[in-house]
Write a structure and sequence with these properties.
This protein has 178 residues and is of the alpha+beta class. It contains three helices and ten strands, in the order αβββαββββββαβ. It has a ten-stranded antiparallel beta sheet. The radius of gyration is 21 Å and the shape is globular. The chain starts with a helix and ends with a strand.
Length: 178
Amino acid sequence: MMTQRVLTSAAVVLLVAALASCAQAPITGPVDTPTTTSRPATTPTPTAAPDQGASDQIVGTVVRFTSERTSIDVTIGDDSPGVRDFLSMLPLELTVEEFADAEKIAYLPRELNYEGSPGSDPEDGDLIYYTSWGNLGFYYDATGIGYSDATLHLGTYSATEEQLSLLEGGPVTITIVD
């Protein structure tokens, strides 16, 4: 009888430990979740990143997002591991979609290596990388969005929400402008 209780107790402890190790980490990002449950098809094309030697060769780099209907240039404003990894992925083809009436988002084919990259307090006109979901975001209404370690600033752009909406509906090619 005592042996059976000990075995039952041991089994319960093992079950609780197994379930605890399977639990998901708490969500630290926005309460809303993307309306898309699967990532759009992407076609990464490996290419050499800008020279990794000097930060002045990263800051000021212009990245162009081009669809059949428009193109929007983003000027890289920071030099961080996340920015460098993003640039190393280009050229790249993604799909852009609306999210939360605040930003246009696109999922990268893989998570960026962003260790050591600072978080940010995004503003309208910022291109960010959201580490929790692995997506880029063009903020056009950052009202109520505060600082987050999960929001990495990549660069800035000058376009209206209407211009950004022209990126939706088809493939968007992302390239570094020479």
